[in-house]
Amino acid sequence: MATLQLVCIQGLDLPDLLLETEMRGSSFAELLTIPQQDDWVYSDGNSASCVAFVLEMYKATGLFDPISGSIQVTEFTIKDAYSLKFFKNNSRRLPKLCNDGDDAELPFCQIRGRYRMELPGYNTMDPYPHMNERCPTLPPKYSRPSDC
């Protein structure tokens, strides 16, 4: 828990942060693995990526209930967001303009664009407590272990 307190220390530059982390018996690598909390406020205010902002709205509307208290959407990637099993599976219910002029019937709505979007794993994952908090992943494919 000592490393979590490092997050609250203000005014440290990176070298000072590295030194403080080491003095507390931890490592910078361990510090980087602490799941970001949705309610953290930074020196310049609240901060969220575009996908976290959308997922915060999902969370506020109850899509993650009854486990919303154990979901930190700031830990989600874009792939995690579109993989959530929150979307309807009936492409015939999409407005006509979604697949208009395309020779492939997509399960999601792509209105414009020269290239067709590919969303591997679209609408396949049920949310679970502490989702994505301990999942190693790197762009561009965001591959991760099967137990994540």
Question: Can you characterise this structure?
Answer:
The mean pLDDT is about 85. It is built from five helices and no strands. The chain has a domain at about 1-35. It is an all-alpha fold and about 150 residues long.
List keywords for this structure.
148 residues; 25% helix; 5 helices; mainly alpha
Question: Could you give the order of the helices and strands?
Answer: HHHHH
Which of globular, elongated, flat, extended, rod-shaped describes the shape?
Answer: elongated
Number of extended strands: 0
- The whole-number mean of residue pLDDT values reads 84
Instruction: Name the helicity range.
Output: 25-40%
Low-confidence stretches: none
Instruction: Determine the number of helices (DSSP H or I, runs of at least 4 residues).
Output: 5
Provide the gyration radius in Å: 19 Å
Class by helix and strand content?
Answer: mainly alpha
The largest sheet is:
none
Distance between the termini: 23 Å
Strand content: under 5%
Please identify the oligomeric state.
Answer: single chain
